[in-house]
User: What shape does this take?
Amino acid sequence: MSNPVPIRRLTPHGLPLAVVALLIGVTPALSQAPAPGRYSMQKTDTGIARLDTQTGEVTLCQEKAGDLVCRMAADERTAYDLELDLLEKRVETLEKVVKDAPEGFSPRLPTQEEIDQTMGIMDRMLRSFMGIARDFGREWQGEEKTPPASDPDGDLRKT
Assistant: This one.
């Protein structure tokens, strides 16, 4: 039969030592090499190919006057131009819809009556919710329910 291991409590001086020991053990894990960057560069006969590791996009780059100048590959440029054309057509269509919309369709702010109606609904809903929460708290503590403070029929749709 094995002897039970006595449980020891950390002394006020032991806690800082335990923290230091923990940090020493964690430091090697934190000092590992960082994750590779977003772009990967590869020298080619005509310059440098830059690979975007997140999107897979390849861009051709050349050094000019001490700067690295990058241009999209032809097929990517075509796809970019196509997407740009589609977006421009969508904007034109939306602008036309707004321009040609009937008078009643134009956006407007709510009237004061609509705001008051909405606030009344929200007030009744929140009061009802708070009553439920209060009843739940009382049930939790063993007390009886209280009658709701809101409308007796409980219809929140009334204004």
Remarks:
- The beta strands are 39-44, 47-52, 58-64, 67-72.
- The two ends are 78 Å apart (CA to CA).
- The longest strand covers residues 58-64.
- Residues 117-154 form one domain.
